[in-house]
Design goal:
The protein has 13 helices and 18 strands. It is α+β, with helices and mostly antiparallel strands.
């Protein structure tokens, strides 16, 4: 944890340095596509103290380069074939650099998968002076009791989601306010460390410096949920190719994140196996004719399944749209049922608002919002990412929600644990190491 804390601080410093130079790239490493956007920053706000979150000034930016390529070597949101993933990332980054006509050395990346787990932490300290200072924030964050999240896990996000000063709760930024006792609630998200290390190593092989890393579920919620939904409580379901990301927001902070290891590629795989056609042909049929709600007319509409096997009867088959829907619907229902299970486990029913927003490439299946409202709840809508300056029209669809969210994350990052100088003796697991060192030195 201590090493990762220092690594995250170093990445934040690199991000600020890249923004000072004016150009940084964001990279969405997905299972179906790899997208890269090059951002140019107009001005960077200077903030008092070390915090670089929403209180630390605003940065205006514009997209000056954009490129996407088919993902290779990535499965379930994790890199499984390093050379292929490296080639795909190089292709996307070089194409975006060519469009922007500028070289980029620093990238901020996001990825899905890696088995995310959420934890709620709480800490409380007495305020040292009359008013809450930056050091008091550091001490109360260090006072949070970190659970044993297991070997081989790393903390990806550690965000204070609520502060309370004496009996006043719901404070976003207590700095400068007068009180005696300061407490905080923090959301911590851990992921499989091997997945993070593989991504970092892959970017190094591409001659790129990692200036930030984020969960795809988090940045998708930032870009797809409107301000009222983030404030009152809403869930964002990012239906990608290999995974379906889940994030719950409340009071403009993410309070829960998870992922289901199923997505649109699994629907395509079902079509490919059922109809005995290549995956590329199955993807085309799903895009043009797919759906999850059959009508009486779908029995009459036929789809030609052209292939090149040499068997005339096999190459000239036809299937009705109703049969295609019958193949797709069970898998989509399975994904939504799994999402419903995760939302129930997170206590989503207890939020004052149960708004659910569907986004991601697989959310564009016709009729999905109606099916989702029956399985997940009544308040379901299809979401698109916010518009940002310079974004090409082709990159404004639901499939680019995570990519656009990375732009907003780069420009206006939320305060996290490593944005503050934590007391060195209160690092998690540090006291045990100090005790062992003392024992070795004195015995």
């Amino acid at each position: 944890m201590t090493m990762f804390y220092e690594t995250q601080r170093a990445m934040r410093n690199m991000r600020k340095a890249a923004m000072q130079r004016g150009v940084v790239a964001v990279l969405d490493v997905g299972s179906s596509k790899i997208a890269c956007l090059v951002l140019r920053f107009d001005q960077v706000g200077d903030a008092p103290g070390d915090g670089v979150g929403s209180m630390a000034g605003q940065a205006g930016f514009r997209v000056i380069g954009a490129a996407t390529t088919r993902s290779r070597g990535v499965n379930f949101g994790e890199i499984e074939a390093m050379p292929e993933a490296e080639r795909a990332i190089r292709t996307a980054v070089q194409a975006a650099q060519k469009m922007a006509n500028i070289r980029v050395d620093h990238v901020i990346a996001c990825f899905s998968g890696a088995g995310p787990r959420s934890y709620g932490l709480a800490g409380e300290v007495d305020v040292e002076g009359q008013a809450v200072s930056e050091q008091d924030i550091s001490r109360v964050l260090a006072a949070c009791d970190v659970p044993d999240y297991g070997e081989g896990r790393e903390v990806l996000h550690a965000q204070p989601v609520n502060f309370a000063l004496d009996h006043r709760s719901g404070l976003n930024d207590p700095r400068g306010q007068i009180g005696n006792t300061l407490s905080t609630d923090m959301h911590m998200l851990t992921v499989d460390s091997v997945a993070v290390q593989n991504l970092v190593h892959c970017l190094k092989r591409c001659d790129l410096e990692l200036a930030g890393i984020a969960s795809s579920a988090y940045v998708t919620g930032v870009s797809s949920l409107v301000e009222d939904e983030q404030e009152l409580g809403a869930a964002c379901i990012d239906m990608g190719g290999g995974t379906t990301g889940i994030s719950i927001f409340m009071k403009k902070h993410m309070i829960y994140a998870d992922a289901v290891r199923m997505g649109g590629d699994h629907v395509t795989g079902d079509i490919s196996m059922a109809l005995q056609i290549p995956m590329s042909h199955a993807e085309r049929i799903k895009t043009f004719y797919g759906g999850v709600v059959a009508t009486g007319r779908d029995d009459l509409e036929k789809i030609e399944l052209k292939s090149e096997t040499g068997d005339w009867n096999h190459d000239r088959r036809e299937v009705s749209v109703a049969e295609l829907i019958g193949i797709m619907r069970p898998r989509v229902e399975e994904i939504l049922e799994e999402v419903r299970y995760r939302l129930d486990a997170a206590g989503f029913d207890h939020l004052p608002s149960q708004q659910i927003v569907l986004t991601g490439g697989a959310s564009q299946i016709p009729g999905l919002d109606g099916l989702a409202s029956r399985i997940l709840g009544q308040q379901v809508r299809l979401g698109r990412p916010l518009r940002v300056h310079g974004l090409p029209q082709a990159a404004t669809g639901p499939g680019f929600a995570a990519t656009v969210g990375m732009c907003l994350f780069a420009a206006h990052p939320q305060d996290e644990w490593w944005d503050f100088d934590l007391p060195i003796d209160r690092y998690p697991a540090r006291s045990l190491k100090r005790a062992v060192r003392w024992f070795k030195d004195n015995w």
